[in-house]
């Protein structure tokens, strides 16, 4: 029972981050599961099966609070579902031994991306429409990486939409989270075909599901107020540290490299968080919060809205 509660708390924390940032549920959950000894394919399959429920709850919550752009959802979700099915099929055919360093490498790269993106990136918006020729490759790549790497839909889709500057940040989060339902279903089908239902652990799936469903409406409510830069840097650092440990163990160099690598990564993590906190405060004091639309962007959108 204690293990179930711990996993439920993992699911709750991961969904709070994902529902507020539009990313990191799969990356965070899969990273922690692998760190406890769960095989890569089983970890990713369990997380995606749980995500069917959590993304449904999250999408409904974001829709309730007006955080979803339905014109983008379908054009992003369909290629995302195709990519996720292909990614699940690929991972299901890899052995545990060969998949472990691959998964750790992918998750490490995603952790670096998340940390850098929310520490240094600009998240202001501009008026305009996001074209299908942009959404198609983003969906395919994000879905494939999400299933094969244990996470990646949010880290790919959310920053991609934000960098266009054409979608309000809160709607980027809500749209990506809502689209992820199709990705989760497609990945789960691919894993069930490749691994079989007997390979899944009901305890892991149910715990992640319950924790995620509880957190979904809370995350949708606070999405407008969450200091995304700080949280993104913190989550990215956690993912980097955890997967660096996996890689060092895989290549049997933890004993020699660990005493140097771990303190260095921890120092960089703290420095990134301190820098991000200061930047967030400067932007807030200047009236240009990197997670919300700047006042001038609101004025630019008024004619289009009319």
Residues in helix, %: over 70%
The count of strands amounts to 0
Summarize model confidence as the mean pLDDT: 77
Low-pLDDT ranges? 293-306
Q: Please trace the helix and strand order, writing H or E for each element.
A: HHHHHHHHHHHH
> What's the domain count?
1
Q: What is the number of helical segments per DSSP (H or I, 4+ residues)? A: 12
What is the CA-atom radius of gyration, in angstroms?
19 Å
* Main beta-sheet strand count, sense and barrel state: none
Proportion of β residues?
under 5%
Shape: globular
What is the distance, rounded to the nearest whole angstrom, between the alpha carbons of the first and last residues? 56 Å
| Structural category | mainly alpha
